[in-house]
Amino acid sequence: MSTLTHAAPGAGPRHAPNGKDLTFARILRSEWIKFTTLSSTYVLLACTVAVIVGIALISTWSFGWVLEQAAADPQMAGAVESDPEFATLGATLLSGGISFAQLIIGSLAVMMMSSEFATGTARATFTVAPRRLNVLGAKALIAAVTAFATTVVAMLAAYVAVQPLADRYGIEFDPAGEAFQRQLWIGAAFVVAIALIGLALGTLLRNSAGAIVTLAGLVFVLPMILMAFSADLIVTIRQYLPDAAYGNLIASESFPDAPEQWVSALVLAAWAIVPLVVSALVLRRRDV
């Protein structure tokens, strides 16, 4: 005796959902839910803001102390005021924490992909969404927007936090000035570049510790090692690292013997894009 299954009147055939039919918007929403449901996300973002604000406070207090000492020493006061960077120093004080915050955001971006492989959820992710480049693209977009927004919010919070100290020591901050705007937007773009490098390393190495150490070596250790050498070739290589490109971009004009600022902008963009493209090619061909 056979059993027949009848569809409801007017209903068409039912199909199992196909991962290839998932739109990028749905994948982005899924990745956003994963990103925002982890407590580590909020801890690291809070640490990023705290580092930028904290270092801005310390830097402002230290510079204020120098100004107090200079007030009693005309020769020291003249040396401070004759510094070509003196006029833009206020903005520099606010952005000093970016050098450390970049590693926190970069580590967060590393874990966005490396944790997928460490926990085994990568198999489920790529089974549901077999178009892996869409998954990587969604993670990259989330990492970039989060890095940019967090850096901008932290810089603005630093500006508000240092105002009492700035008023006490007579330090002027002009949030509408070119120096502050340059530090704000280029600083945020720099942190975005580091976040995308971190995401690429997490995709390539599939190990959080290894990728974070590699990222720290790139942004901290390698520049210090290269600074110990004075050979022309080493000096040239040093100028094309991410931190050197960032430093050249936030200056009022290119440093002596440094590339033009538009070249530094291309260098920073290449550091963000090339590793991500390489990781996309590897992710597409490598087994989960």
Summarize the SSE layout with pairings.
Elements: H1 24-36, H2 39-71, H3 74-81, H4 89-95, H5 98-119, H6 121-128, H7 132-169, H8 178-205, H9 208-227, H10 232-238, H11 242-250, H12 261-285
Helix pairs in contact: 1-7, 2-3, 2-4, 2-5, 2-7, 4-8, 5-6, 5-7, 5-8, 5-9, 7-8, 8-9, 8-11, 8-12, 11-12
Task: Characterise this structure.
By secondary structure, the chain is an all-alpha fold. It has one domain. It is 76% helix and 0% strand. It is built from 12 helices and no strands. Helix 2 (39-71) packs antiparallel against helix 4 (89-95), helix 5 (98-119) packs parallel to helix 8 and helix 8 packs across helix 9. It is globular. Mean pLDDT is 85; it is low at 1-16.
Which descriptors apply to this entry?
disordered N terminus, mainly alpha, 288 residues, globular
Brief write-up:
Helix content is 76%, strand content 0%. By secondary structure, it is mostly helical.
Question: Averaged pLDDT, please?
Answer: 85
Instruction: Characterize the overall form.
Output: globular
Alpha-carbon distance between the termini? 45 Å
Number of helices: 12
Helix/sheet category: mainly alpha
Work out the radius of gyration: 24 Å
Describe the largest sheet. Answer: none
| Domain unit count | 1
Q: What are the low-pLDDT stretches, counting only 5+ consecutive residues below 50?
A: 1-16
H/E element order: HHHHHHHHHHHH
Approximately what portion of the residues adopt beta-strand conformation? under 5%
- Write down how many β-strands occur, each being a DSSP E stretch of 2 or more residues: 0
Tell me which oligomeric state these chains represent. Answer: single chain
How much helix is in the residues? over 70%
